[in-house]
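S.,

Sequence below, as promised.
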Amino acid sequence: MSSAADTVKTFLAMWETPGGIEKALRTYFAPSSTWENVGMSTTTGPDEAMAIMDGFSAALGMKTMWVENLHVAAVGDTVLTERIDHVRDGEGKTLMSIRVMGAFDVKDGKIMAWRDYFDTAGFASGS
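The prediction came back faster than expected:
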């Protein structure tokens, strides 16, 4: 069985290919999994999470995202990430890069809770 850190790293790496974000959410989320963009939105289950991702895609022209993991730390089933999420268009051009701190709670290979913390002002400005 994979470690909680391996689960999170694989989940994030899947975002690099077209359709990979949806595949990652449907593979690693349970119906009760929550995703919170602190200060912005909270979802439950893969369908709600995909609705938020679809909104990001439409607003930003996002097709894929390359996640640059700066640091990944795990204690038991809790994984913390410091990363830069590079939002990319269909040609692979980076549209914007967002510095993020994330916390993931993993159980039996599923991400049960995911919280991302970032400066929403920078996100809104596209920097």
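The helical segments are 4-13, 20-28, 45-60, 120-125.

Coffee later?
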